[in-house]
């Protein structure tokens, strides 16, 4: 992939860097956050130690996925950023939708295709000396899913071989534009601008689900979408409960 080409194809005005290989693009940008002065997109052709939530891993093989992180500054600091990972999911899903891929969202922020995970999102933050927050939005998107990689992941995973035929620089630039637009809107209007869009894309609306905390069932009920701060609404036998995204995992019951 070519950084200059991605920048030329994008409308976002964001600096772009492409590296052949790194451990984690999120880790790299987090380490640079104290010195950053403007948004930057870091793309890795090959990511060897991709991270998911709570120490989980994001696995990929060179040439078969897009792995990248976007550093973005929020002048107002951490306040109000709770729904950001979900807003990023909306931006990613809608951009893929415009490219002809029908995808859905699983709370809090996985992108699913035909029920399997197509993309993962990890948002990490660092507060700057002036009180602003740098958010590092890390994304891995499967383009092709070789059997050997799916075996390593240990569950079925989705890919989009049709979109994989599109030029990678063009695809990356299109995703960057969708994300930059969403980040600017989030900075202005917060998650309120995304809640209805998230609920429209919700993969498991009305379906029986269980919420797991370290493997233990914490709640079960019908998934009822998210509220205006991005909390999951679950209709249980004891009434409606709201769930904050911590280290909990959602699974379908059927
Ligand atoms: P869960 O999906 O279990 O609720 P999560 O949403 O927190 O967890 P993430 O932290 O976003 O998941 O992603 C890490 C998980 O994604 C891994 O534990 C693994 O199951 C799965 N995974 C890792 N690499 C891939 C990939 N390339 N494609 C699809 N799924 C993957």
TrEMBL record:
Domain of life from the UniProt record: Bacteria
Enzyme Commission number(s) of this protein: 6.3.4.15
Keywords assigned: ATP-binding, Biotin, Ligase, Nucleotide-binding
Xref: Gene3D superfamilies: 2.30.30.100, Bira Bifunctional Protein, Domain 2 (3.30.930.10)
Span of the signal peptide: none
NCBIfam families attached to this UniProt entry: birA_ligase (TIGR00121)
Domain (BPL/LPL catalytic): residue spans on this chain: 1-187
Catalyzed chemical reaction(s): biotin + L-lysyl-[protein] + ATP = N(6)-biotinyl-L-lysyl-[protein] + AMP + diphosphate + H(+)
Cited Pfam families: BPL_C, BPL_LplA_LipB
Record's keyword annotation contains Lyase: no
UniProt name for this protein: biotin--[biotin carboxyl-carrier protein] ligase
Originating species: Massilia cellulosiltytica
Gene Ontology molecular function: any one: biotin--[biotin carboxyl-carrier protein] ligase activity
Keyword Secreted included in the entry's annotation: no
GO cellular component: cytoplasm
InterPro entries reported in the protein's UniProt record: aa-tRNA-synth_II/BPL/LPL, Biotin_CoA_COase_ligase, BPL_C, BPL_LPL_catalytic, Transcriptional_repressor_C
